[in-house]
Amino acid sequence: MGYSSVSFDPAAIATASDAASSALVAAASASDAASSALAAAGGVSDAASNALSAATVAQSKASDASSAAVYATKVAVLNPTPANVSATGMMASFAASEAVAFGNLCYLNANGFMAKADADSAGLGPVVAMALSSIANAATGPFLLHGIVRNDAWNWTPGNKLYLSCTGGTITATQPTGADDVIQVVGVATHADRIYFKPSADIITHL
Questions:
Q1: Of 41, 98, 146, 190, which is least surrounded by CB within 10 A?
Q2: Residues 108 and 177 in one domain
């Protein structure tokens, strides 16, 4: 059996070994670069996610601020010390079906006109407004629907409930007690000369 001879070149082997080592180093470097690139991409993704979250929070706060601003414009701040024979609050103009004077309690009749309310008759109520000036029959004038009204001629006891009286258009601190009288709270005295006017929707007929 014959044998072929094989010769080894140490220099070539060393060169090949060095080449292999260099290739391994290059591969490792490429792997590190790839890892760094992935990490950077992840960082960009996290930064974008954080920015989006911050934007969402900012938008929510802006929406809340906007809602608060809208609410603030709708809140009425009443002046607790209006001038004598005047009022502050929610008002509207209506035509009167008869002559009324400042402070008269009125109801809205079937024709859409304001008329003096009277606790003697359920048909002459309920009170929905107070006249804020002298208004002639068929004329139009200002009426208070809800608010604070002042008249230095009054002498109420602060904290007392006030009612529609049995004298057309007037206020009383005494609850009506006659048969079939209408009992309607129209407000509360805040001072001797001032009333928080807020007609109650609860109407009771005295037996």
A1: 41
A2: yes
Residue 133, token pair as written in the block:
């000036």
Q: What is the mean pLDDT of residues 18-31?
A: 59
Phi-psi region of 116 (alpha: psi -120 to 50; beta: other; left: phi over 0): beta
Domain boundary among 75, 107, 127: 75
Overall size of the chain counted in residues: 207
| Position 195 in a domain | yes
- Distance separating alpha carbons of residues 158 and 87, to the nearest angstrom: 17
* CA–CA distances in Å: residue 146 to residues 124, 153, 206: 20, 21, 25
Instruction: State if pTM tops 0.85.
Output: no
CATH (domain of 158): 2.40.300
Task: For residues 121 and 116, give the distance between their C-alpha atoms in angstroms, rounded to a whole number.
Answer: 11
- For residue 54, the SS3 value is helix
Beta-bridge partners for 191 = 194
- The predicted structure's pLDDT at residue 4: 37
DSSP-assigned letter for residue 96: B
Which single residue is written with the structure tokens 């804020």?
132
Claim to verify: residue 34 and residue 126 sit in the same structural domain: no
- Only one residue has tokens 């802006």, namely 62
In the predicted structure, residue 26 carries a pLDDT above the cut 80: no
Q: How far apart are CA 62 and CA 188, in angstroms?
A: 40
Same domain, 133 and 102: yes
Residue 191 backbone dihedrals phi, psi, to 5 degrees? -150, 175
